[in-house]
Design a protein that fits this description.
Peptidase_M48, globular, Peptidase, 5 strands, three-stranded mixed β-sheet, hydrolase
């Protein structure tokens, strides 16, 4: 049984190995078509359940930024249809889904004070899509479930004492040792991808740092320790983005020289 489990695990890992835009090895077990179907279905459900903002100027502003960012995506993403929806939701959030879907909450416009800051968030969210983070997350969850089930089977076969307690420990280890740090990796990677994307589109990359300073100021209550969070702390994000501003500024300058200078209002 152990040999069968090991063989299946290796086969899954080998067949699903890819490289992210930053050069990181990742596991993506699902096809682009399947992920697009899942993303589109989720987006349609959100549109049914959440109120949609119809203000023309607000929608034009958000879509203007989206269009500039989409124009800088790899051709397989830039050439697909994209749908951008502004949801009436007070939280300062945005998201992008496989299948060419972007959602922006109205509450984000209270924190992202200008086009550059909003482009930082939207670029980050689109970065999740082009880095196939949704695929990686779904694949990761599938492998975690496979591993826990395999461990349970092995413990049952071996008649191991305290099996339930051991399985609870394995589940806790999977959560804090794999799932949460993995989420922080995704967030940090999307920050970098989004920074490059907004700079190539001609947005001011300094807006990304200003955005996270705003986010930190707007947050309320005590923040959980970073090692127990799926997101890096604002301080970590600010430091990481600041370290990459010089290169991003060069990309922005090149964009301006080629006539790319967004004026979204």
């Amino acid at each position: 049984m152990k040999k069968i489990i090991s063989t299946l695990a290796i086969a899954l890992l080998v067949s699903g190995c890819k490289t992210s835009p930053t050069g990181r090895t990742q596991i993506a077990l699902y096809s682009d078509q399947k992920m697009n179907e899942m993303g589109s279905a989720s987006f349609e459900q959100m549109k049914k359940e959440q109120a949609i903002e119809t203000d023309p100027s607000m929608n034009a502003y958000v879509k203007c930024i989206a269009e500039h960012l989409i124009a800088e995506l790899p051709s397989n993403y830039a050439n697909q249809p994209w749908e951008v929806v502004v949801f009436k939701e007070p939280s300062a959030n945005a998201f992008a889904l496989p299948g060419g879907k972007i959602g922006v909450h109205t509450g984000l416009l209270n924190v992202a004070k200008n086009q550059d800051q909003l482009a930082a968030v939207m670029g980050h969210e689109v970065g999740h899509v082009i880095a196939e983070h949704s695929n990686e997350r779904v694949s990761q969850n599938s492998l975690l479930q496979f591993g826990l089930q395999a461990s349970s089977t092995a413990l049952q076969m071996g008649n191991v004492e305290y099996r339930d307690a051991i399985m609870q420990g394995l589940g806790l280890g999977a959560q804090y040792g794999v799932a949460l740090p993995f989420g922080r990796t995704h967030e940090s990677e999307a920050d970098v991808i989004g920074l490059d994307l907004m700079a190539k589109a001609g947005f001011q990359p300094e807006g990304s740092v200003a955005l996270w300073k705003n986010m930190e100021a707007a947050s309320s209550g005590e923040r959980r320790p970073e090692f127990m969070s799926t997101h890096p702390s604002p301080q970590s994000r600010i430091a990481n983005l600041t370290s990459k501003l010089d290169e991003a500024s060069r990309l922005k300058q090149a964009a301006w020289q080629s006539g790319k200078k967004p004026q979204c209002k």
